[in-house]
TrEMBL record:
Domain of life (superkingdom): Bacteria
Keywords on record: Gas vesicle
Protein name: Gas vesicle protein GvpL/GvpF
GO CC annotations on file: gas vesicle
GO biological process, one term: gas vesicle organization
InterPro entries with a match to the protein in the record: GvpL/GvpF
Pfam families documented for this protein: GvpL_GvpF
UniProt keyword Membrane, yes or no: no
Keyword Electron transport: no
Annotated compartments: Gas vesicle
Similarity remark: Belongs to the gas vesicle GvpF/GvpL family.
């Protein structure tokens, strides 16, 4: 491999981390520098990372999961490409403090995802208020915006209530969490996504605690464990 070869970057780990077992990526290589290691593979000149196939994405995810199964990693998003080994070492120099902080943050942890389909409650009925003279289209626009923000607020309240309900059971079992609040869609359930940074040894206890939470009028699903994509940004 020459320094001019394009390299696809999978993840960053401590230099003492083990190479993934059973990784399918061709030419997988470790580049160590400054106490860190970058896991990379060469890209063919014709490769287009802007338009990956499903197989490309599955292979990329497999390599990261294989490494994460044996070590703490900072996972990259598909499409992280550097121009060669010199560029990789320069990148590790430039971002060393960031990567060290990220590795410290996720040490010993995995990511578990909780996705919940919420049925958005209809808006409360309110009497029509007298509308001062204005065009019909203007009044309709204001009413549509009022309904939109009303639905948005109700949905956020539902998500926040769900978040607190989950945390009441699993907070002692996770290091951090984050929530993605969905935008309301007319006549459609909304997907509320929560991500938890969970110590590896607490995964079973987390699953058990989650199963004990009664959640009415929702469809809830747990996924993972995954590499901690949502906690290394």
């Amino acid at each position: 491999m020459t320094d001019r070869a394009r390299l696809l970057l999978y993840c960053i780990a401590d230099a003492r981390a083990a190479l993934p077992h059973g990784a399918r990526a061709e030419g997988l290589q470790r580049i160590e520098h400054g106490g860190l290691v970058a896991l990379v593979s060469p890209l063919a000149e014709s490769a287009r990372v802007e338009e990956p196939t499903k197989a490309d994405l599955l292979e990329y995810a497999h390599v990261i999961r294989s490494q994460h199964a044996v070590a703490d990693v900072v996972p990259m998003r598909f499409g992280s490409v550097l121009s060669g080994e010199v560029a990789v070492r320069a990148h590790l120099d430039e971002q060393r403090d960031t990567y060290v902080r990220a590795l410290t943050r996720v040490t010993g942890c995995v990511e578990l995802g909780v996705r919940v389909l919420l049925s958005v409650s209809p808006p409360p009925l309110v009497p029509d208020l007298a509308v001062k003279p204005m065009s019909h289209s203007g009044a309709a626009y204001l009413e549509s915006r009022r309904r939109h923000y009303s639905a948005e607020n109700r949905l956020r309240e539902q998500c926040e209530a769900l978040e607190q309900s989950l945390l009441s059971k699993v907070a002692p079992l996770c290091r951090e969490h984050r929530t993605e609040f969905p935008a309301p869609r007319p006549d459609s359930p909304a997907l509320c996504s929560l991500y938890f940074l969970v110590p590896r040894e607490q995964v079973l206890a987390f699953r058990t605690a989650l199963a004990s939470i009664p959640v009415e009028n929702t469809d809830i699903a747990l996924s993972g464990p995954w590499p901690p994509f949502n906690f290394v940004a």
